[in-house]
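S., here's the first fold you wanted:
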Amino acid sequence: MDDTRPGPEPTELVGRWHLERTVQDRRHGRSGTVTGTLRIEPGPDGLVWAESGLLVWQGRTVPVHRTLQVRPAGRGWEVTFEDGRPFHPWVPGTWVDHLCGADHYRGLVEVGPDRRRVDVTWVTTGPTKDDVLRTRLTRTP
């Protein structure tokens, strides 16, 4: 996304979003898609980031969901898993890293200047992974 600027607060993104994600397993030459919704809402410790949708993978369609927390941390924000484990700092426009066992997740959040579009990219590498996930979020009324 080339029309972005770093630094919007996650509170600027509260609302409902349409979610389109591509999932590429580069190691095995497979790909799939997720279509669904994202809700970003105030929560007890910051914001709740709740995704739900349908994954189409290898000819099967299965429901998927994920809930993250976006919480104030020091002078900024951090993204945590639902159970509170750290995931990554909230720094749109900057690549962030997350280690999970032997796997390395490298992610980028890009927020459009009008706050109506967000692109999220995750590249995962490890002994058994070589994946790229690209998500386009579009604000819905």
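And the second, which I think is the more interesting of the pair:
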Amino acid sequence: SVVSRNGAGSSVGSGGAGGGIHVGAGSRANVISSTVNGNFATAGGGIYNAAGILEVVLSDLLFNRAGGSGGGGIYNGPGGPATVRSSNIAYNVASGSGGGVYNESSATLTEGTRVFRNTAGSTGGGVFTASTGTSDLDLMLVFDNEPNNIGGTGTVV
């Protein structure tokens, strides 16, 4: 599947979150062998997880933009577990924190996932973990992100 060049403005029912995909509370989204490319939103330019269950496998999240907050590639909100396996999160931009990933809950990035060349206006160009979040980075790479690869005050294991 290809999800490309979509936008969630402030007038959208999701509150401008999830330019490509918005995972609602209590929902489940399996993004498998897909490309989420060139989308924009206030938060979660590529994907916004609002207390749902998100799984991304063998997919590319590229050139997405969060213009008012964080999570250029993925914004994982409170109560929403997210797992990313064997995927690329690259060339995303957030005006706030988390150019690649902004995590407020539980996120696992594993099995060859690569987070690279993302940019944040604040901190966590690659992965930002809020004080309420835990990010499990296992068997994956985070590199060449601006202003830094990993940021935030949450737990990173």
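Why I say that: Residues 2-10+21-156 form one domain. The first strand starts at residue 2 and ends at 4.

Talk tomorrow,
H.
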